[in-house]
Specification:
The relative contact order is 0.17. This protein starts with 6 loop residues before the first helix and ends in an 18-residue tail after the last strand. The protein is mainly beta. Strand 10 and strand 11 form a beta hairpin. The chain has a 13-stranded antiparallel beta sheet, with helices on one face.
């Protein structure tokens, strides 16, 4: 049922948004960029935990495909970055592989990879964060949750992507060990979710483009893209992630994210 807006209410409503617009125009590009990033982060708070099934399709430059099947679990951590784990189920050469990530707002993330064929847990050092994740076009740093404190921001312009009105932001990694010199993000103005991200290598060259599509909203608040496509412009390879069966607030705890039990995780 729609509420009726009285004339005086309409004037007040219009004045409120006029003030907001004036306030936005008064911001520097850096302040505006940070404001947009903070709003995007604020809208995703409170999901507590989430799980999903993933099909990862690796494509070489000739279009040949190799699928991999895995599951992901994420735990929201108050005051710090998220914890997440990815477990590979198929094919047989990667079955049992698991990747654990503790993202931090400040300082290097903690990441571990368990490889069954080696029978041991390998720590991913911060100097290797730009390395490829399981032969995909995603780097280890792409897989970690993207915390606001890890970048500086600058609003660039408004543009449409596939008919969607977007803010365009430039974010520069704070960590000098990042594999990127800058990242450009097209952020949906209405939902505050990324639609497209361009990654530039340390030499300033456009290296990869990640596009998100097939968004669904869960619990009337949380938007999740069901399809991620990462294209590497320097190698001609690409990786597609198809994410389904999203569930939230399943009761995961810290005990489900333990590096000492990576070899036994189910």
């Amino acid at each position: 049922m729609f509420k009726t807006i009285t004339k005086s209410g309409f004037v007040a409503f219009s004045l409120f948004f006029s003030l907001l617009s004036v306030q936005s125009f008064a911001l520097t590009p850096e302040e505006r960029g940070l404001q947009i990033a903070q709003e995007s982060d604020r809208r995703d708070l409170g999901f507590e935990d989430a799980i999903a099934d993933i099909t990862m399709i690796l494509r070489d430059k000739y279009g040949n495909e190799r699928p991999r099947y895995m599951r992901t679990r994420t735990l929201e951590v108050k005051g710090d970055g998220d914890k997440s784990i990815i477990i590979f189920d198929n094919p047989g050469d990667v079955k049992g592989t698991s990747f654990l990530s503790f993202t931090h707002k400040v300082g290097s993330d903690d990441q571990w990879l368990y490889l069954p064929r080696l029978g041991k847990v390998k720590r991913i050092s911060s100097s290797n964060k730009a390395g490829a994740f399981m032969n995909s076009e995603f780097a280890f740093e792409d897989i970690a949750s993207q915390e606001i404190e890890k970048y500086t921001y600058k609003y660039l312009v408004d543009e449409k992507v596939d008919g969607i009105d977007c803010f365009v932001l430039e974010s520069d990694p704070v960590d000098p060990k990042s594999g990127y010199s800058k990242i450009k993000t097209w952020m949906d103005k209405e939902r505050y979710v990324p639609i497209k991200i361009e990654f530039f290598d340390r030499g300033g060259n456009h290296k990869k483009t990640l596009t998100y599509s097939e968004y669904n909203q869960y619990l009337e608040k949380y938007w999740r893209a069901h399809k991620w496509e990462m294209e590497n412009h320097q190698t001609g390879k690409s990786t597609e992630l198809q994410m389904v069966n999203w569930q939230f607030k399943t009761g995961l705890t810290d005990k489900d994210f333990n590096k000492n039990s990576l070899s036994r995780v189910k």
